[in-house]
Give the backbone structure.
Amino acid sequence: MPDIDAVASSLAPELKKRKADYLEARFEENQTSHITYRGKSMESIGRSTASGGNVRALVKGGWGFTSFNELDRLPDRVSLAIEQAQSAGSGKSQLARVEPAVDNVSSNIAKNPVDIPLAEKKQLLDEYNEIIWSIPQIKTSTIGYADSRKKVIFLNSEGSFITQERVDVTLHLTAIAAKDSEVQQVSISVGSLGDFKAIQGLHEQVKEISQNAVALLSAPQAKGGEYTVVLDPVLAGVFAHEAFGHLSESDFVYENDKLREIMTLGKQFGPAQLNIIDSAAEPAGMRGSFKYDDEGVRSVKTYLIREGKLVGRLHSRETAAKMNEKPTGNARAVNYRYPPIVRMTNTYIEPGTVSFNDMISDIKEGIYAKKWYGGMTSMEMFTFSAGEAYMIRNGKIAEALRPIMLTGNVFSTLKNIDAIGNDLDMNQGGGCGKGGQSPLPVSLGSPHIRIRHCLVGGK
Amino acid sequence: MEEVLALARKVAGAAEVFEVASETTQVRFEANRLKQLQTSQSNNVSLRIIKDGRTGLATATNIADARQMVKDAVETAAFGAEARFQFPGDLKYPKVEIYDAAVEAVSIKEMVRLGEEMVAAITAHTPGIICEGDVSRGVMTVRLINSRGGRAEYKKSFFSLDIEGNLVNDTDMLFVGESDSSCHPLSDPKKVTDLVLRQLDLAKNRAKAPTKVLPAIFTSNGVAGALVLPLLSAFNGKVVLEGASPIGDKLGKPVFDKNFSLRDDPLAAYRPGSRPCDDEGVASQRTPLINKGIVKAFLYDLQTAALAGKKSTGNGNRSRGGLPAPAPSALVVTPGKTTFDEMVSDIKEGLVIEQLIGAGQGNILGGDISGNVLLGYKIENGKIVGRVKDTMVSGNVYQILKDVAAIGSETRWVSGFLQTPPFYCKALSVSSKG
């Protein structure tokens, strides 16, 4: 592996003396291992190493960005990025001021999961797969395990020089049941910021998803229409992230006057008990946590909605300057091949006071939606799919339904939230995609929440 | 590459080195203005070995340390899948036109001009619209060598135009967009923007969708975004082998409408999905998947084909140098005879689906498609009357495609990987807030 510390150190004085409004460079090296299963047999097992870097330049409001695997000829790469920025720029450069930082942040992981012998990882996955296959009517399964250890060095023309290490572990399991031409699947996704224990001891959960997949084969489909819907913490976290969180990303907002009007700070968006937060700073040790973002900005806890009012949004240095707000440390890049863009970190709805039983007790006919296949949003409109769903009848959880899809307008849906549970739970398995950069490690969380008049797709 | 192969052969029975190198340049527009210029130089090398009958894999961005790569591959081979295939020996490859030197010669200035023209055409038509777009060009080189004397090398150029518009009116948001790609330089942005202007014209008025079962026309974009997704997994040889494909046991049987034919085509000239061989050195071929409604074949790589007792169809695809898996190169639907206008005029009440969100989230394996209409129009008495909102559609692809009302005559490439005309479908469940 090339020595990125030496490469970065030698480039630091070069960045300060070149002619540009702003210059930065990021170098990265990583080691990963992965194991995937399809059905009973292992599909792929492998190890990989990568190293690369990029240079980004800002001239007159225009950006130049060049990424590379070959770490030689760096002064030429800096020149190329500056030339690109010059061609793109015709206005004025704006970046929020931040104190330059010199720091070295290690991952504090006692045992690097990448170093655990493949035999040990395989043993655990074999146990899970045997459980899935022990359930009758399971037709097939997929398992994807991956870990990585990554070291990133960030430096800029203002004197920042930050080394951060990050370790990541993810596991996705899907049980697929089939009968006649009917196919149903249920999944779980878990992950951690480097702690291998997070994916151990899931035997009971694995059994449960396999049984649920089989049960879905004979479950009825929901009748399409409007329902009172209770979301579990996983799905409510998806809602906070997909439906609302993306609207808080200022790169969508800052050059769009009409959207700025909609997202005016102080506007009432939901009930007074609603608080939505994005924070890489705390809780620490989540997959969306870090000390500095990919522009070298210190992370903070940002309230997006407080007591139902819009009070904050997520920024890069550029969007913060253009909107005359404080930077929040939300500029992130999935790896060195990409420039940082405004992204979420750990996004969650703060817990309220209502117990789950109280929440469903006065629902005559409604739907309890759990887990997720995925979610997508286009500004005001969102769709998300529940991996499991049940009818609620006369205040009790009733029959299981086929997976359902919920959709709506985020503004009216936020207003229709009328109960927030007391049982916050964070999900660590998430990966977010935006602008071609995916999957970015994030975590999502919420207590149970109840939404009135939610549109459910179906027959 | 040769050094890694030689080292690997000392410890393994068979070995293969696969390398992809690329250089791309992108000009990016945001909020109607030139925002960023970007270049990317990228390498990826992977070593696949067969040791004691098992497959091992190591990938890296550089062959800085050939010994470490061989060591990693050997560690993984201890647990790797049993290799049931042999690397292909010296093969003959078809000649496929995929490189045009003119792509590399397109200046940044010309790329900026193309982007500016796209933005100008759309903002002139609809004041207040915010456009994002990019113009990209690139060249990639693929090289492969293996221990059975197999050797492949090709160079491919690609060029693309992409434009999206977002019009916000209070809390109402409209999204439009189009793209085009080729191995030639693209010089006429009007071809792309005319399609966007048409979307804007059709979306100008608002219309109400009812909650009931309606006929629907999927435009080429709609077919790519919703109808074709379930078919990608159903025709994957691996899914078939596992017994999870709903059509896995239907080879030679009529499953789809008798006018529906679909093929995988890696030989189309100057298409970015084309190539002379797949990512494990198997020669490219055209593979009919559906012929007049009858299931004709599934897509295979070497290992899956060996397990299934079939021959590789040359569809071994490797993302970032990982192990190959079956994937289409480029899909082509045979056009029908009905024009889009004829379809519309045939419908008393129905929808035109241009784009769905969330279509990929449901039970894709089972063929369920369900999604919110991001861009779609209402048809009343044979005319498009306006755009629908807050509308969800759901249906099952196998039911929809068993018996379609008509397949369009106007075909085009969408999403880079599919050439298709519009589909006129008889019944789709619609739920709407109006």
Summary: The mean pLDDT of chain A is 92.
